[in-house]
Amino acid sequence: MDLTKWIKSIAEKRWPILPDTLSELKDICARHSDMISFTDLANLCLSDPFLLLDLYRVVGNSRALQRNETIPSVEQTLMLMGLEAVVNRFGKVEALAPAPNQLDPEVYEAIGDWLGRSRVAALIVKEWLSIQGDHKVEDCFVAALLYNVPACLYMLQRNQLPDKPLLQEVSDAFGADYSQILAQFIRDLPLPAGLNGLLGPGAPSKRRQLLRLAMATANSLENGCWRSTWQVGVDTAAKLIATSPDNAYQAVVHAALNVAHHPRADGYSYPVRSLLLLEGEYKKASMKQNKALDAGARLEDAIKESIRFLANDLKFERILYYHYEPELHKLKLRYQVGLDADNPLRKLLVELEPGSFFAVFASKPQSFHAPASVRAQLAQRYEDAFFQHIGDGEFALMTLFSGHHLSGVFYVDNPRSGRAIDEPTYHRFKDLITRLTH
């Protein structure tokens, strides 16, 4: 396939944006002009790479931008265009949507996934740059958002899922490295030339390295974050910005959660789901299969995967998941690791009577880390049967809610070794359970 002809075919038409973005865009543009905020419009553009592409195409031919090779901020671009021109242009954009005999639903979902990955990568590189004290982040943020766009347009135009990993398939189709495809895409569409300083081939700089690492990290989450090939990218970023690997990893977690909390498409939640994958054989289910799973089954699978992660990666010696039984209004043990066959905790129904510890604790989403001294105080204060059987060591608890309803409670400790639960381990425990609610 000829790359120049393909990019020309892309440049000859406007491309749709995600439906949720269009709905919010219409709401903003329908306001009185005095009530339209350029900041709101800019944030909307930064939430949907397809809308950002539509905006930057307007200024891509600017001689000043081509000459100075700068990347204008999104808000500056909107202000330079002027409100009337912005409203007029955005009033004619259409929504991307699956339809009979048109866009395949699986392709539509995959496009949302890959746009979501770009958004995750943008937030990762923003956080990594901030950690090293670099607060000039919008150029890298914008570059990350646009990184996957040519591949998404390729998939959209062909209207079929790739047979290989998407970026590899695009590179193979045009016989060029993906960075070369990006460079020509920026030049021929055209987009602001400064993007090539970050996305195209060229001499490495720390900012370019961090951007590439963020993209590789977000794009490969589905392959398993336990893999050394994935972890090496986070470790390398940590060295570049002089922080711990755990801090660099937490930036990934927060980025994936942020995108899942503010989705533009179903696929925006997939990166955080990928973080739940645990070590072992993994075959990605088709999107049709994913649709067929109801919310309860997905949550149950995620709980079991989380228990394996708590045991294998965080090395907790005892893990209990008590499921809330609404008919009994009690907590009943559903899954466990580390209990002897005759341990009374296996059969214990945890009471939720008013005034009991678990009635208070399970009343809202929260976590609790109890050193041994605190455990002793709790046992004396509440006299719950649960405390008579867990031993004298420290432990951690966290409630699991589905929407506004209690699903259950996780309990972890290390009764054999008496090993303390340090703060990094406790925070990873909390992050893991938090992700289950999304």
What is the terminal-to-terminal distance? 40 Å
How would you sum up the major sheet?
A: 6 strands, antiparallel
Which class best fits the helix and strand makeup? alpha+beta
C-alpha Rg (nearest Å):
25 Å
Question: What is the overall silhouette?
Answer: elongated
Strand content: 5-15%
Which stretches of 5+ consecutive residues score pLDDT under 50?
285-289
Residue-averaged pLDDT, rounded? 88
The total strand number stands at 6
Order the strands across the largest sheet as they lie in space: 3-2-1-6-5-4
Order of helices and strands: HHHHHHHHHHHHHHHHHHHEEEHEHHEEH
Helical content (DSSP H or I, runs of 4+):
40-55%
Number of helices: 23
Task: Summarize the structure in short.
This protein has helices at 3-11, 19-29, 38-45, 49-59, 63-68, 74-81, 83-90, 105-131, 138-147, 149-158, 166-174, 178-188, 196-199, 206-219, 228-240, 245-261, 270-274, 287-292, 295-312, 357-361, 372-382, 385-389, 423-436; strands spanning 318-325, 330-337, 349-351, 367-370, 395-402, 405-413.
